[in-house]
Amino acid sequence: MIVCLFYHWRWQGIYAYHLLLAYIYDNRHKRKRQHKKYDYDAFVSYNTEDEKWVINDLLPKLEDEYHWKLCLHHRDFEPGRSILDNIVDNIYGSRKTICVITRHYLESEWCSKEIQVASFRLFDEHEDVLVLIFLEDIPAGYLSPYHRMRKLIKKKTYLAWPQEKEKIPLFWLKLHMALKTSEGKVDEDPILSVIVPDEDQ
Fold first, then answer.
1. Beta bridge partners of 89
2. What are phi and psi of 45, to 5 degrees?
3. The TIR domain covers which part of the protein (predicted)?
């Protein structure tokens, strides 16, 4: 029990630190980006363990078929700059952030930083700038240490990668529509609505 509390408090401390850091970067970017156009349609936040799906499925569909311009770590980060600077600049330089959520993602320190910056921008700007894709089923209990994530998915529509092949075309259509929205909430469109699993399930 004591060990669990220790890791819980440690995670909360790390989160608070990076939230403050995101706030500092946010103020800086507000001043810098008053008249700046976006460099990308979406920044893709994912764990390297899930890179195969991103490269083989997500990238061809969104860039080649739908002609969205994506920002990917391995391809678009500026060499010589710190990883954190690249993360913040590219999230704010993109209209949206797509987070590909898996167990690997939730266990990654850098993925945690990315979704913290993206969620802070969402809460601060009050615009639809974040798209969550659950690539696998994540039990609600598994999200218990990630209070901000759970709060986010309780309030916001997210997309789940379907197990049935016949449902995959509808998934891509929903994602395409989510990227097309510029302001407001995604769940205002009924085609994007999904059921958020109950905490006790």
1. none
2. -100, 120
3. 38-179
Q: Tens digit of pLDDT for each residue in 158-197?
A: 899 999 999 999 999 999 999 987 644 444 444 444 433 3
Q: Strand 70-71 and strand 40-45: pairing?
A: parallel
Of the candidates 129, 136, 110, which has an alpha carbon nearest to the alpha carbon of residue 186? 129
73: region left, alpha or beta (phi > 0 left; psi from -120 to 50 alpha):
alpha
CB atoms within 10 A of CB 29: 18
13 pLDDT more than 60: no
The closest of 95, 89, 64 to 180, measured between CA atoms, is 95
pLDDT tens, position by position, 106-139: 888 889 889 888 888 887 777 888 899 999 988 7
Give the architecture (CATH level 2) of 37-180. Answer: 3-Layer(aba) Sandwich (3.40)
DSSP H or E run through 95: strand 94-101
